[in-house]
Amino acid sequence: MTSPVWHPFFQHGLEEAIPLVSRAEGALLHLADGGTLIDGISSWWVTTHGHCHPRIAAAIAAQAGQLDQLVFAGYTHEPAEQVARGLIDLAPHSTDCDPLAHVFFSDSGSTAVEVALKMALGYWHNRALDGLADPRHRILVLQHSYHGDTIGAMSVGERGVYNAAWTPLLFDVGTIPFPYHGQEKETLDALETACAQNPAAFIVEPLILGAGGMLIYSPAVLQEMAAICARHDVLFIVDEVMTGWGRTGTLFSCEQAGVVPDIMAVAKGITGGAIPLAATLATSRIFDAHRSTDRSRLFYHSSSYTANAIACAAAVANLAIWREEDVLGRIATLSKGMAERLAQLGEDPAFTNPRQLGVIAAIDLIAADAGYLSDLGPRLRAFFLEQGILLRPLGNTIYLMPPYCLDVDQLDRIFAALSKAGDIFGVPA
Ligand SMILES: *Cc1c(COP(=O)(O)O)cnc(C)c1O
């Protein structure tokens, strides 16, 4: 029997296996046929503490029986208030910068990015109405970025085969070259030049570009990018959708650079990965540009499920876990275990360019046909599936982004499978 389900980022014509998963616990997925899979990518970068975390599951169950959903335009509920206060407390702080002080809820990373872009343009639009500035529209982006799959989020992301069909709809942006090691100055000079032309905002993935291939750059560069934007009054937007919630070794990766952005998007791990929720945080100047007695200045964005109470309750439980448990300690231990094994794998001539930030590790397989559209990705995916491991390589880049509860035995099994993949698919230089 064929299924009517149309899967995302999946070529149905290749007739790859589609495993049926019935249950999950910790880092383990249980298949309907009795097998298990170690979740090496946190089910697409969302699961942080582990699947079906008891505290989060209990919070969802309790909230579902009390208040499920409420129109959020002018009504509120305690879970949303608690998440907003918690986010403001935990967000990056610095004595030199205005703090992030306002929280706008939505339901996915893409939407949180759309909201960030709309806030930035809304800021300049409303300032212009007051005669305080010229309207600014242009957005600067970093080469190889990924910010989501809606039209605005695609517009500020890397162009390629994955968005070619919609190119005519994507708006024009200014692209700043990626700060590869040794080329940081080119990046910063290009940003300085672009900022002199009064763009509205610059949006970045802080410290590591995820979907672009796990490309890492230094906190010093992030800090300098923020400083250049501040000097030119260009709004600095950080997309912490993937990097947030501990992935890079700190709760948010901006902390490592001492940067407080004007606008910050968070999603994925905000509920521990159990249920969709997203938030866009902004400083008071962004909020105040929309605050007025004039109704035409209000922030025109909403979705039906904005700040869904069940999702907010899950986020409240996640924030409590962060406050009360040694999550960063768990992350540090896992990160160390990954680093030791990655160093060893880096010696294997089938691999090159091992790199790691926090609990994200990546390495490139030296293979004959390595492009994004080559069949290497699906073949590797099928191989790892046979090994009982869920990994989803980006072309020839194999990366791990496991939940923080992954144990040593599971980590060993993943690295054994990587080594075996090198033997089978690698073509040493
Ligand atoms: C995943 C991701 C998004 C999009 O989030 P969705 O919840 O999938 O819409 C945006 N930005 C970054 C950096 C991401 O990794």
From TrEMBL:
Domain of life of the native organism: Bacteria
Keywords: Aminotransferase, Biotin biosynthesis, Cytoplasm, Pyridoxal phosphate, S-adenosyl-L-methionine, Transferase
Binding-site residues, pyridoxal 5'-phosphate: 109-110, 239, 303-304
Cofactor annotation: pyridoxal 5'-phosphate
GO molecular function, one term: adenosylmethionine-8-amino-7-oxononanoate transaminase activity
Modified residues (N6-(pyridoxal phosphate)lysine): 268
InterPro entries in the record: Aminotrans_3, BioA, PyrdxlP-dep_Trfase, PyrdxlP-dep_Trfase_major, PyrdxlP-dep_Trfase_small
Pfam families given in the database record: Aminotran_3
Primary location group: cytoplasm
The keyword S-adenosyl-L-methionine belongs to this UniProt entry's keyword annotation: yes
PANTHER family, A to Z: ADENOSYLMETHIONINE-8-AMINO-7-OXONONANOATE AMINOTRANSFERASE (PTHR42684:SF3)
Xref: NCBIfam families: bioA (TIGR00508), PRK05964.1 (NF004624)
Name the UniProt record assigns to this protein: Adenosylmethionine-8-amino-7-oxononanoate aminotransferase
Originating organism: Sphingobium tyrosinilyticum
Organism ancestry: Bacteria, Pseudomonadati, Pseudomonadota, Alphaproteobacteria, Sphingomonadales
